[in-house]
Queue: 3 jobs
Job 1
Amino acid sequence: MSALPLSGIKILDLTRVLAGPLSAQMLGDLGANVIKIERPGTGDDARAFGPPYLIDPEGKHNNNNSFYLCANRNKKSVTVNIAKPEGQEIVRELAKSVDVMMENYKVGDLKRYGLDYETIKQLNPGIIYCSVTGFGQTGPYAPRAGYDAIFQAMGGLMSVTGHLDGEPGAGPMKVGPSIVDYMTGMNSSIGILAALYHRKVNGGAGQHIDVCLLDTVIASLSHYAQIHLVDGRTPPRRGTWGNGGMPAGVFRCVDGELMLVVGNDAQFARACAVLGKPELATNPKFVKNNDRVVHGKEIMAIFAGLFLRNKIAYLLEELEKAGVPSGPVNDFAQVFADPHVRARQMEVKIDHPFERSLSLIRNALTFSDTPLTEYRYPPRLGEHTREILADELGYEDARIATLKQTGVI
C-alpha cells in the first residue's frame, strides 16, 4: 500500500471555527502534517460553541465539543499567543519550513502581527498561503466579519430556500447545517492542492489564495443563479419540489414520508403504474415533462393523494423495481443505521483519551491505492505544544517553561 497522497506536506493552520478547520482536516486526512495554532487557555472559538462535550475521565467540564470534533482530526494542537512578540516569532519560525499556511482572520489583522502573506513570503518564498474570509481580500465589504447564515442570506441561497409562496411558513429559510462553511472548506482544499501542483509540476512559485464564503455560496447556486443571469428572474422557492423533473418532492404516506424524483417521461409512466393510475401518463396535460412543470401544482396534488394510500416500505420497493428514484426521509439515527451507509463505513471509530470508541464521520473520498484509514483524534488544547517547539524549532525545556510562565504558549 502506497503512502497517503499528501505525505510529506506540512501545513501551518491558523484557522478557527469551521470553514478553514474543515479544509485543514481534509488535507490532514490525505496525509499532510497539520500543525494547528490555538489561543492559550481558550483555543479555537469552536470549542466554546456549546454542548454536547466529551466527558473527561474525571467527569469534568472540558472544551472538546461536537463542533470542534467535526473539523479537527489528524492535526497537532499548539497554543501560541500571537498578540505577543514572542508568539509571533514562534509562528514565523514555524512558517519557514512549511508548504502551506492557512488563516481566516479579518483582512489586515495578521499584518499587525507580521504574519501576513507578504511578510511570510520573505521568509519562505515558496509558501502557499491561503486566506479564508467572509467577503474576500478585496471589495468594499472586505473588512467585514460574518458567519455562515449571513452568507446564505446575502448570497441568495435563502431567497430560493423554503416553502412555496402561499403555503404556511413561506419565506426565506436557512439550510440546516453550515453548508457554506463546508463548501468553502472544499474550495480552500482545491485551491491549495492546485497551487501545490503548480509549484511542483509547473515550476511555479508560492502564491496567495483568496477564498471567501460569499464567492462560494454564489458559485454554488449554479443553475439557479444562471436562470437569473439569462433572463433576470429569481427562481421561486420550491420547498421539497425538484429542480427539473416533475413530479418531485416529499410525499406523505400512511406511515411517514418519502422523497420522489421523476426525472423523465418514462419514469413518470412507471410511477403512475406503481401508484395504480397508469392513465395519468397519457393525459395530455402530463405526457411531457414540460407539460408537467406547467401543471405542477395539479400533478403534485394528484400524486399526494395517491401516496397517502400506501405505506413507505411498499412504495420504496415497488418504485425501486420500476426504476423510479425514491428514498425515505431519514433522521440521523436512521442514516447511520442504514445498511448501505454502514457498508460504506461512513461512521468511523477512533480512540480518544476521553472516549475509547469515539465516532467520527469519515472523509468522503475513497482511494484504491492510498486508502484513508488513519483517523487521529482531534487534539486536546495545546496537546502538542512542547513536542512541536522542541522537535521543529529546537527549543529547550527551560525556554519552553519560560514561554509558558509568561503566557506566550
Job 2
Amino acid sequence: MQAFTATRTSDTPDALWLCEHPPVFTQGLAGKPEHILLPGDIPVLATNRGGQATYHGPGQVVAYPLIDLQRAGYYVKEYVYRIEEAVLRTLAHFGVTGHRVRGAPGIYVRLDDPFGHARLAPTLPGEQPSFLGLGKIAALGIKVSRHCTYHGVALNVAMDLEPFSRINPCGYPSLQTVDLSTIGIPTTWNEAASVLSSKLATQLAA
C-alpha cells in the first residue's frame, strides 16, 4: 500500500484491495504498549495508520481503499463517514443494525438486539464514548498521504474472537468484540467480502 501510494500519479486509477490476514496484532501511530496485554504467540506489528491496537485474523474481511481524495472531491472526515456508511449498509444487507459511536470510529451492534432499530443514546461533545451493551463488529484505521488513502476497515465475519481479549481493542479496556457469526448470521467470508466491496465501491465514488 505504501509503495502503491508513493508511486501513484494523478492518473493512477483508484483501487480496493480485500484480504484475509493470518493472526496479527497491529498498533497505530498513537498506539500505547500497555494496550497489548498478552500477545502470546501472535506477532505485534507497528503500522503507520491512525488508531490504537487491533487484531486481524482468519474469518475477518479486511478492505483497503486506495482513493485519491482530491480527485474524488471529498475530505478525510467525509471519507471516514463513507466507509462507515458502507459497513452499515453491508450489515443491513444481512438484517443487522449497526451503529456509530461519537468519538470512537468503527461500527457497533447492540449485543441484546442486533436486529432492532432503536437508536443509541447520543454521546455529547466532550463525553467519553459509552460501550455499555455494545459489541464492536468493524474497526477502522486509515492513513492519508498526498491526498491519497491507504489502510482501511476490518469487518468481523466468523472469527476466533479470543485474541481480542489479549488487547484493549482500539485502546478501550473491556470493549467487547463480536462477529456476524456470534450474532446469528451464518454467512461466508466470500459473501461478506462481496457485499462489503460493492457497498464501498458505491459509497466511495466521486
Job 3
Amino acid sequence: MKLYTAPLSMFGAKVQIAALEKGLAFDYEMVPFDRDDRYEPKHPEVLRINPKRQVPVLIDGDVELFDSTQIFEYLEDIAPEPPLWPGDAAQRALARQLEHMSDEVFFPHVIRLMGLQHDMGSEAAIAACAGCARFYERMEERLAHGDYLASAYSFADIAFYMAHVFADRKGAGMTAATPRLLAWRERIGARPPVREVVGRMMAFLASQNRPVPVYLQSLLGA
C-alpha cells in the first residue's frame, strides 16, 4: 500500500495512525506543504485519483481511494484485527457518528481559525473558539461513561485527537474546564502509533521554526 499525505495533514495522520494500530505495512509519500498549511504543488497522483484535489490518497494494487474515513473503512475490511470500531452495533454507530462530527462539526471551527490567526480578538475568531469549547464540553460528558468516546478505543478517538491537535495549534485548546477530556488526551497520546505519527508532525513544525503545542513538546526528544 502507498499513502499520499502531507507533513501537516490532519486527515492523512488519521489514516497513518489507523494503519500502524493494525500493524499494516505501507509506504507513504509526503507531498509539499507550505507555511499557510496548504500543500503545493499538487501531486499528479492526488490530482488523478481525488477530484477534490486533496490528500490523503491510498493506492493498494488496483484499489485507489481518497477521503480518510473511506480509507479507514477499507483498512478495517482488509485487517479486521485489532478492530477500530466497537463490536456492539449501537456503539459502533455512535463511534462512526462521533468520527463524522470531529470532521464536520468540530473541525470547521478550526478551519475558520486558520484564516484568523492575524486577528484572534475578532468576533469571528472568538465565535470559532467558543464553538470548539462547546464541543469539548460535549465530549467531556461522553467521557463520563468510560475511557473512550465510544465503548472502546476506536477511529472516533483517533479522529478527535488529531482534530484537537490542530485546534490547539490555532488557539482553541482544551482547558481545566474539561478534566476528563484532558486525561483522555494523555491516554490517547501515549499510544505508540499516535506518538509516532504526531511526533513526526511536531518535528516538521520545529524544523520550520513554528510553534509546537506545550503538551506535545516532549515528542521532539522521542
